[in-house]
Amino acid sequence: MAESTSDGPAEALGARLLDQVPIEITVSVGKARPLLRDLLRIERGGVLPLDRRIDDPVELYIGDRLIARGELQEVEGAQPGQIAVRLTEVIDTVKGG
Questions:
Q1: What is the residue extent of each domain of the chain?
Q2: What is the pLDDT of residues 17-71, one digit of tens each?
Q3: Angle at 59 between CA 53 and CA 60, to 5 degrees
Q4: The three-state (H, E, C) secondary structure of 49-96, written as one string
Q5: Residue 90: which region, alpha, beta or left (left: phi > 0; alpha: psi -120 to 50)?
Q6: In this protein, which residues make up the domain named Flagellar motor switch protein FliN-like C-terminal (predicted)?
Q7: CATH homologous superfamily for 24-90?
Q8: 85-96: per-residue pLDDT in tens?
Q9: How far apart are CA 78 and CA 32, in angstroms?
């Protein structure tokens, strides 16, 4: 029996189906390392300082894999205050061919 090629109908259908699968990207703006006692005392309106400055790059993850870095910006013409990420670096995730 002959093997199917990667350009066959089944592969094309699979590629089209994958195009429709949503993924979740997490944007990390920084980390905080408070003492537990300080975290337990925090109240609404409290401030939790992060390890980054407001103009530092943010990191984009799929699961625990870093995929890109970028900068936060406000979306023009959208809801007031809505933010987005402008990509400044895309990580090469292909390892070893």
A1: 24-90
A2: 888 899 999 999 999 999 999 999 999 999 999 999 989 999 999 999 999 999 9
A3: 150
A4: CCCCCCCCCEEEEECCEEEEEEEEEECCCCCCCCEEEEEEEECCCCCC
A5: beta
A6: 17-91
A7: SpoA-like (2.30.330.10)
A8: 999 999 987 764
A9: 30
Question: What's the CA gap between 56 and 2, in Å, rounded?
Answer: 54
Rounded to whole angstroms, the Cα distance separating 28 from 44 reads 22
Q: Is 77 left (phi over 0), alpha (psi -120 to 50) or beta?
A: left
Helix (H) or strand (E) holding 27: strand 26-28
Residue 16's pLDDT is what? Answer: 81
How many angstroms separate the CA atoms of 9 and 16, rounded? 11
C-alpha span between 81 and 97 (Å, rounded)? 42
Full 3-state SS string of 8-54: CHHHHHHHHHHCCCCCCCEEECCCCCCCHHHHHHCCCCCCCCCCCCC
